[in-house]
Amino acid sequence: MLIGAPVQRVSSLSHSSSRHVPSYSLADYGWGEAWEHAFAPHRAAGLVPARVVRAERGSCEVVTDAGIVRAEIPGVADHADPLSAPCTGDWAALRPATAGHAPVLHAVLERRTALVRSTASRTSHGQVLAANVDTVVVTVSLAAPLKHGRTERMLALAWESGAQPVVVLTKADACADVSSAHAQVSEVAPGVDVLVTSAVTGQGLDVLSAVLTGTVVLFGPSGAGKSTLGNQLLGEDRLATGAVRDTDGKGRHTTAWRELLPLPGGGVLLDTPGLRAVGLHDAQDGLEQTFAEIEHLAGECRFADCAHGSEPGCAVLAAVEAGEISQRRLDSYHRLLRENAYAASRTDARLRADREAVKKDIARKLRATYQFRERQR
């Protein structure tokens, strides 16, 4: 195969390798006038627009108007911070293939939105899970015990991304009391649509399709039914699915990477691997929106710096005593605020260390220059 020629998709997609995969244009992947305007300087330089559909270390698959190609990512070692590395959903400027040379991802356009969590290695860096998304579908399985703390954590990241969150309760056919579950989740998701769905019966899928816009990312733990839900939205079995354990409702990682797929009714779907851990990374605004009712009541507290612990005249504690806010909800709010503050402090410490390292490097080079000049005299 010629270097830079369109590649045949081999991925989590597919039960049948002979399935015909239709060709799509950049417009099918979300390209529009705003992106064309942002891309103008790169087009003048002879580059072509592309969107990253799957990113790996050192290379990625991108879609262009000529099809999907594999491109090199130069300077991989320079991406010390995972936030700066190309990610699925990024719009990029591609240098086309030439004789003997593969296409090269020359630059990444500024992201409009980004779904970011702390890295799994628990460093002070963040990891971009999806870029330039419009809707974050937070999936919650009704076939397993509800974990509101995890839902709140995912909502905080979804709000922080700049996209619109939607909570989707999956596997309604396996739940004995859907109304109660819906009410519980709605309480921890203020300002967010909470939809009930079942891939088995088809319940709620038409409503879900109607509220999804633009680039849609499926976000949630293993076993929540993301890939099954994605297949329903795609209208065919393109995403690999797997069974979950009966004991705890947990599933295996059947989705091994993040990948973009056009939806038949317009828009783009991004399926993500199930997340074992969802750490916060610089998510203060997202937390404020996730706990909007607490933030609103905080403005009525006697003291401006009220910590909602034991202070007199605390409107939040009064709401807890009145049963308007649960103690669990307030405890979760405090816990996630502490976690986010700790993550921010680690990031600040790393940035200070990075700045000091640059200063020391400059000082070393200056000393070497002065020593060289002394020896030349």
Automatic annotation (TrEMBL):
GO terms for cellular component: cytoplasm. SUPFAM superfamilies: P-loop containing nucleoside triphosphate hydrolases. Belongs to the TRAFAC class YlqF/YawG GTPase family. RsgA subfamily. Monomer. Associates with 30S ribosomal subunit, binds 16S rRNA. This is Small ribosomal subunit biogenesis GTPase RsgA. One of several proteins that assist in the late maturation steps of the functional core of the 30S ribosomal subunit. Helps release RbfA from mature subunits. May play a role in the assembly of ribosomal proteins into the subunit. Circularly permuted GTPase that catalyzes slow GTP hydrolysis, GTPase activity is stimulated by the 30S ribosomal subunit. Residues 131-276 form the EngC GTPase domain. CDD domains: YjeQ_EngC. GO terms for biological process: ribosomal small subunit biogenesis. Its cofactor is Zn(2+). Its EC number is 3.6.1.-. The keyword Cytoplasm applies. GO terms for molecular function: GTP binding; GTPase activity; metal ion binding; rRNA binding. Zn(2+) binds at residues 301, 306, 308, 314. The lineage of its organism: Bacteria, Bacillati, Actinomycetota, Actinomycetes, Pseudonocardiales. Binds 1 zinc ion per subunit. It is found in: Cytoplasm. The keyword 4Fe-4S does not apply.
